[in-house]
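We emphasize that the prediction below concerns an isolated chain of 277 residues; any contacts that depend on oligomerization or on bound cofactors are therefore not represented. The input was used exactly as deposited, without trimming of termini.
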Amino acid sequence: MKPNRREPIMRRILVALDATPHSQAALEAAAELAASLGAELVGVYVEDVNLLRLAQLPFARETRFPAAATARLELPEVEQRLREQARRAQAELARLAERKALRYSFQVRRGQVGNTLIEFEADLLVLGRVSHALTGAARLGSTARAALVSSGQAVLLTDQSTLQGGPITLLFDGSAAAERALAVAEVLAEPAGPLHLLLWCGGERSAGQLQTQVRELLATASRVEVTYHAVTEANLLPVLLGETAGLLILADPGGKVTDEELELLLNRLDRPVLILR
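Result of the prediction step, given as a token string:
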């Protein structure tokens, strides 16, 4: 059944803000998506309770660069820095949202970052995807990992590229999550270019049946150029790792890849990844 296009695909998009480059990329991606889908943009700055507890310990020290001098970590100073970061995050959210004429709001919460974010009611949580180890190798950030493991909501993990920076790839299995993902992909693909559908043939449905379902779901007036590629458990991971540009949308990846394979995929891919459940 073709979805009702008058119903918003997403109503509320939540973005985690912390004044880092990854946070800025997440904000830009969230604003881009909110503008495309007509959703409200909610920015959240979480005062990390673990950092605040650390600052209360008498032996806590910080190293200041480039002088490499050490100093005691003082709680009032840490709280002041957090407030300043929150003000900068709010200002950047307002600037971007007003430029795109978005409905938006901003909140400051105190708690453990991952747990606090997944407590919010939102259709989508947007996060910076990676942290960088001392080796320079990319790693899935702890907050992103917590959101993937503990949250049943959709998660967009961003990098430094835009959502509309190339062809969109969607893993489609015919499920309700896949239909929602297709609706998102169709909206974003209009200005971005081709939509590459990976048809999951590891279940009961054939590639032909899935392709027919896609054609029935796409809007009659859609100008999106669609290509199809059948995938199974045997070739899914190599195919995904071979996709190097544009937004990747994984509709309900559970049962297709293990948690370990999903983390490997997210560590290896240098592109934004949207996971819908």
